[in-house]
């Protein structure tokens, strides 16, 4: 960020600044609550991100990340959004299970073959977007996400869903388009809050 002055305040938006790396000045802004680093050709996020203890929203989308630092799990105030979409991630650090207050997670357009178990620890999630990956199943602990209202799994490799989905009693919308579905559990049709159930493009 040569010759660039950061705006003061609690929101720091560096969207599409072609940074290549995160400038050290960012980590000095320990008071910020919103940090947008999307579309900056970032290949890594330094461990210093764990020092931004007041972050409520973090956008790391549209970069070239293959891994994330464990220190990301120190951002326990992170509540509003965590955008990780359109990177090259195949796993998430175990520490992210500490993000109990997080309400929205987007891991779409990555390289996940399995939904990481750490997602199950995010028990405050209301919306999960995991479209355009290589997912074929959900972990057994997924039923822990009892507050989940929206589940977006479009364009993956699901043939079915586990019966344990019955525990997602708050689920209102599920998107299963463009999956090789061969069957769906009866429990899905019995969810009391489900209003939108999309599976066009499947084999059903």
Walk me through the structure:
- The radius of gyration is 18 Å and the shape is elongated.
- It contains two helices and nine strands; from the N terminus they run βαβββββββαβ.
- 4% of the residues lie in helices and 13% in strands.
- The chain is mainly beta and 204 residues long.
- The chain has a nine-stranded parallel sheet, with no helix packed on it.
- The model has no long low-confidence stretch (mean pLDDT 94).
- The longest helix has 4 residues, at 24-27.
Strand percentage: 5-15%
**Kindly, what is the distance between the CA atoms of the first and last residues, rounded to a whole number of angstroms?**
51 Å
Low-pLDDT runs: none
User: Main sheet, how many strands, which sense, barrel?
Assistant: 9 strands, parallel
Task: Give the radius of gyration.
Answer: 18 Å
State the share of residues found in helices, binned by percent.
under 10%
Helix and strand pattern: EHEEEEEEEHE
């Amino acid at each position: 960020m040569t010759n660039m002055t950061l705006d003061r305040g609690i929101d720091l938006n560096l969207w599409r600044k072609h940074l290549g790396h995160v400038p050290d000045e960012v980590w000095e802004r320990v008071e910020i609550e919103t940090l947008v680093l999307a579309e900056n050709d970032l290949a890594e996020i330094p461990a210093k991100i764990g020092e931004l203890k007041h972050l409520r929203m973090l956008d790391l989308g549209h970069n070239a990340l293959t891994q994330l630092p464990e220190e990301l799990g120190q951002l326990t105030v992170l509540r509003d959004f965590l955008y990780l979409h359109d990177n090259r991630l195949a796993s998430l650090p175990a520490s992210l299970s500490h993000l109990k207050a997080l309400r929205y997670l987007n891991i779409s357009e990555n390289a996940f073959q399995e939904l990481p178990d750490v997602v199950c620890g995010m028990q405050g999630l209301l919306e999960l977007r995991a479209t355009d990956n290589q997912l074929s199943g959900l972990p057994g602990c997924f039923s822990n996400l009892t507050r989940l209202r929206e589940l977006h799994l479009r364009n993956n490799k699901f043939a079915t869903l586990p019966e344990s989905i019955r525990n997602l009693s708050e689920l209102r919308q599920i998107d299963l388009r463009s999956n090789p579905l061969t069957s769906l559990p009866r429990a899905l049709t019995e969810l009391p809050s489900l209003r939108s159930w999309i599976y066009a493009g499947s084999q059903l």
